[in-house]
Design brief:
Blueprint lengths: L9 H21 L4 E2 L6 E8 L2 E6 L4 E6 L2 E6 L2 E6 L5 H10 L3 E4 L9 E2 L6 E2 L5 E5 L8 H7 L7 E5 L6 E7 L6 H16 L4 E9 L1 H29 L2 H25 L2 E2 L1 H31 L5 H33 L2 H32 L22
Parallel strand pairs: 1-14
Antiparallel strand pairs: 2-12, 2-13, 3-7, 3-10, 4-5, 4-9, 5-6, 8-10, 11-12
Length: about 400
């Protein structure tokens, strides 16, 4: 009968796993700990655009501009006027604003009002000081590397592209800098970008602040979620199979989690809530593979309890291998493109998941069966469960 003698090569598998896991503590000290995102540490997450100024506007007190679904609204007192920006030129917009008491100073007549970028500065209250209206262009000269270079003097800043490059929108995540309040840290980042790309070219689309209390609670909740998942798995498999299966499965899952953390530390990936999602996903995926193999071990053992356990394990792995490889490959076909072509948190999630799938498949076929070889000696799996027989002679006719 065909078999894969995984127990024979267990020492090579253990050595490989120890090497991978040992890299984690080494790089932990090299990098000075995990690269914690603002999910796990106080800081800001900003979505900003580096967008050229099309015109400056001024107005009397009580006048404001609003933007709603392609329409620009001018409000002054109880009155208002609106114009559809689609298909008009910046000269048309200038004339409309002048007619409604808004002063204008056009910077670039080639820009199109349909591409206006309002962000969080709308509704815009006007005054004597000119305020900028920004318009996106077909080609944006600012790259993600330009933004990273501009902020390179600030520690812990992470920059990712949001959407297409032509949108010129970036996600900037940064912690509170030492000795600064949250407002001071935000002002420093914004002023640094203004100095690098020009005054008024920055458009804020989103601004989220994560405080220390929330981040602390998130760390605690994440650890609890992983611990509870592992404990429930241990209880379930002990009930469904035997303790030797349960302990081997849980230790293999711990191996997978530590291997994923090693990758994160070696590559200095940011640790965020998506990292926890990837770990929990891999726990479920790896466990599924391991349970399929262990169920086949139990099935093969039930045919003849006198067979050597190591042979049974080898046969079970061989019979499950095709199914395991097909499942892993089809899943990788969906995830690898995300790891290559996506950006930001999705890219990191996909990379973590790809590594987790590979290491989970490896542990299910090599580590878990090898551990079962050892724990079988404590909690034997080649002992048939006793059947409870009823004495029907005690039952009256």
């Amino acid at each position: 009968m065909k078999k894969i003698d995984v127990v024979k090569y267990r020492f090579f598998a253990f050595a490989f796993s120890i090497l991978i896991i040992a890299l984690g503590p080494i790089f932990y000290f090299v990098h000075g700990g995990f690269n914690k995102g603002i999910d796990f540490g106080s800081g800001y997450s900003l979505n900003v655009g580096i967008v050229p100024v099309g015109m400056y506007v001024t107005g009397s007190e009580g006048t404001s501009l609003s933007y709603d679904d392609g329409m620009l609204l001018v409000r002054f007192g109880t009155d208002e006027a609106e114009i559809d920006l689609d298909g008009i030129s910046i000269s048309d917009l200038e004339a409309f604003l002048n007619e409604n008491g808004v002063g204008t100073e056009v910077v670039d007549y080639d820009l199109l009002p349909a591409n206006i970028k309002c962000g969080l500065n709308f509704p815009m209250r006007l005054g004597a000081e000119g305020k900028a209206l920004n318009f996106a262009t077909e080609s944006v000269d600012v790259t993600i590397q330009d933004v990273r270079d501009a902020l390179s003097s600030l520690d812990g800043v992470n920059v990712q592209t949001v959407g297409a490059r032509s949108d010129g929108v970036f996600q900037i995540r940064f912690p509170l800098f030492e000795g600064m309040s949250d407002d001071e840290a935000l002002s420093l980042v914004l002023s640094t970008l203004d100095d690098a790309f020009g005054k008024d070219t920055l458009v804020m689309f989103q601004s989220d602040y994560v405080g220390p209390r929330f981040s602390s609670e998130l760390i605690t909740s994440s650890i609890k979620a992983i611990a509870i998942a592992i404990v429930l798995i241990l209880v379930y498999i002990s009930f469904r199979f035997r303790p030797s299966y349960a302990i081997s499965s849980v230790l293999a899952l711990v191996h997978d989690v530590l291997s994923m953390l090693s990758l994160i530390l070696v590559l200095d990936f940011e640790v965020s809530s998506t990292t926890i999602a990837a770990i929990l996903t891999i726990i479920g995926y790896s466990l599924n593979n391991t349970i399929v193999i262990f169920d086949r071990v139990r099935e093969e053992m039930g045919k003849d309890y006198s067979r050597p356990v190591d042979d049974v394990i080898g046969v079970a792995v061989a019979k499950s291998l095709t199914r395991t490889m097909i499942t892993s490959l089809t899943t990788l076909f969906a995830i690898v493109p995300l790891a290559i072509f996506s950006t930001g948190g999705i890219k990191l999630f996909a990379i973590n998941l790809t590594w987790g799938l590979l290491i989970g498949t490896y542990s299910s076929n090599m580590i878990a069966p090898a551990l079962l070889h050892y724990f079988h000696k404590i909690f034997p799996i080649n002992v048939e469960k006793k059947k409870v027989e009823r004495d029907y002679s005690l039952v009256d006719d």
